[in-house]
């Protein structure tokens, strides 16, 4: 059971305050994610904790944990300064293995897309160009994803694990309604599911690179992840690439490279 | 009494944290305070902060939180929690620089923020802390309550921009709305503090 893990020491000072107790959100291969608060209950935060690994030599373990948290924090700092939508770092203690991040409201893009697709009447039908017209809100979301990934790549950062689960849809403060006015509550709820600002999360595998190759592989990972998570919307992925292509000068050459990567897969040939 | 007792989430409960803000403190007072600090008089263990380099409560409390965490993990880089609060406001590990920028300057600083952490093994009461402060800062106007608006009245934005390296940052330059820009500066400053020295 997830709840049986002991809390990281930084969260054990509760109940010194009247705040809500921390709760475990998810567990990954390397770390755990808790929801807690920074300073006061009005500032919810996500605490990413990398517990010590008993199977590693303690000195090596401490060094790896520290380096990885610092690397992730640096990437987030760079993104924030460049205006790429990512959570801010509120506090961290790399030696103790934790990082406190801004809490992003909303749901993952994956969930939003699934709500949208699930509400479609002919459930087994793949979406093709013919009924694109009904897909405007989803297509708009695809374009926002492409733009955000483009902005990220422009700063010289490669995410390393782009999936629709590693993107959040932060609700807009004012609700936008699309030009094709939907009628009925169900349709409105469906449309709301794909609205919001795309915020990239989980930079645990991020690296810095400005090469077409690395950028193309990053897009390829997203393309594959998208196709397996949302097979019915696979055809709409082209809108992500189209928007990406407009974000920076070298983006079109990344898309050319992407064609090569598709031919051979994620791993580069060991020759040459 | 105008001493505010702070509560900060996820900090140990064996301490009380007090906050005060004095406006228009005269040069004689800051010079006298500096003498006490240079003499390392233990009775004057406070974090004295120049309010002009502080953005908001969140900004200030983040530094206190980080300093308390250093106490809890026994990783203080300065002699005590009060000097650590001043260091925690800095995005770099240069301690002298942090004292110069966020600590007060004798004869120059007029708006002074005071933070006092009293651990429970210490007998000092809130009344005693306040009486001691009032005695040694006789000239300033006491600000109460210490709201974001009150803190913002003292903020010198050109200093903040310089200290947190916020000039020419794309994320700020694209924001037109002034209030939103200040929120983003607070966000980046807190982040700079969290990543101190990286």
Strand content of chain B: 5-15%
Radius of gyration of chain B: 16 Å
Largest interface: A-B, 36 and 28 residues
* Count of the separate structural domains of chain A: 2
Q: Per DSSP, what share of the residues of chain A sits in E-state strands of 2 or more residues?
A: 15-25%
- Main pleated-sheet profile of chain B: 5 strands, antiparallel
Give descriptors for this structure:
heterodimer; A: 272 residues; alpha+beta; Phosphorylase Kinase, domain 1; Transferase(Phosphotransferase), domain 1; 5-stranded antiparallel sheet; 3-stranded antiparallel sheet; 7 helices; 10 strands; B: 198 residues; PF0523-like; 9 helices; 5 strands; 45% helix; 14% strand; globular
Structure description:
The complex is a heterodimer of chains A (272) and B (198). Chain A is an alpha+beta fold and 272 residues long. Chain A has 2 domains: 2-102, Phosphorylase Kinase, domain 1 (2-Layer Sandwich), CATH 3.30.200.20; 107-264, Orthogonal Bundle (Transferase(Phosphotransferase), domain 1). Chain A contains 7 helices and 10 strands. In chain A, the strands form 3 sheets. Chain A has a 5-stranded antiparallel sheet, covered by helices on one side. In chain A, strand 4 and strand 5 form a beta hairpin. In chain A, helix 3 (136-154) packs across helix 6 and helix 5 (212-229) packs across helix 7. Chain B is of the alpha+beta class and 198 residues long. Chain B has a single domain (4-194), classed as CGI121/TPRKB (PF0523-like). Chain B has helices at residues 27-38, 57-72, 81-88, 95-102, 126-136, 148-154, 157-163, 170-173, 178-194; strands at 4-6, 15-23, 47-50, 112-119, 141-143. In chain B, strands 1, 2, 3, 4 and 5 form a 5-stranded antiparallel sheet that branches. In chain B, helix 2 (57-72) crosses helix 3 (81-88). Chain B starts with a strand and ends with a helix. The relative contact order of chain B is 0.22. Chain A: Its EC number is 2.7.11.1. Chain A: It comes from Apodospora peruviana. Chain A: Keywords: Activator, ATP-binding, Chromosome, Cytoplasm, Hydrolase, Kinase, Nucleotide-binding, Nucleus, Phosphoprotein, Serine/threonine-protein kinase, Telomere, Transcription, Transcription regulation, Transferase, tRNA processing. Chain A: It is found in: Chromosome, Telomere; Cytoplasm; Nucleus.
